[in-house]
Write a structure and sequence with these properties.
By secondary structure, the protein is an alpha/beta fold. It contains 11 helices and 10 strands. It has a domain of 180 residues: 3-Layer(aba) Sandwich (Rossmann fold). The termini are far apart.
Amino acid sequence: METQENVKELVRRKYSEIALQDKETNQSSCCGSGCCSTEVYNIMADDYTELEGYNADADLGLGCGLPTQFAKIKKGDVVIDLGSGAGNDAFIARQETGETGKVIGIDFTPAMIERARSNAEARGVHNVEFRQGDIEKMPVTSNIADVIVSNCVLNLVPDKAGVFKEIYRVLKPGGHFSISDIVLVGQLPNAIKNAAEMYAGCVAGAIQKEEYLQLIEANGFKNMVLQKEKAIVIPDDILANYLSAEQIALFKQSGTGIFSITVYAEKPLAEKAACCGPGCCN
């Protein structure tokens, strides 16, 4: 069984490689003489190209949803993008928050930070900043963000409860998040659970849907809404790297579902102080 640090290191290595490639390379995989399915870390990607602020150089095809589309970002907001990669969601968030707002992208892979900063310089935007750091211990002060977004990243983090605690700390009272991620209904086969590549692709790191939603509520968030849900199907040629033909058939018959969800929730406003006596609670 991989330790948390081992898992983080294999994810860091994989995404450092991805940062040096273009989207087309990331989305192709040659198996022998013919082409086969895309790599497991980008079979879930949604189409960003119609969203304002889209930057092809920042899109590595690694997401599993469109959280910025659902994030209710307003002009002047401070937005934090967790696991910002090459900056795709950050630049789209910046389109929403405008010149008067600010977007902070956080990623723990130095190569991704370098690529995102290069994309920001090329676009000439100066209110988008990229910081290297772990999202379990964000390099930002408390109560700073109006909105937090994240796209298929929490699955890469072993301590998901720790991330939600940090999200709560960093959001302003009344702030909210919109997060796209991968969840399960049913149990994955052990061969997939233990596969490093499947972990780097957000599949082996997925937890049960109900557990994921309970983590959000357990960390104090309110008004949770499931904004979008779609089934993810892993192609047989990828499953064949980990399971026999018989095991693949059993897996498909097991009822296990792999889903991309986009979930919204709010940090409550600070409670009013208790009434101190007659006339004080007008």
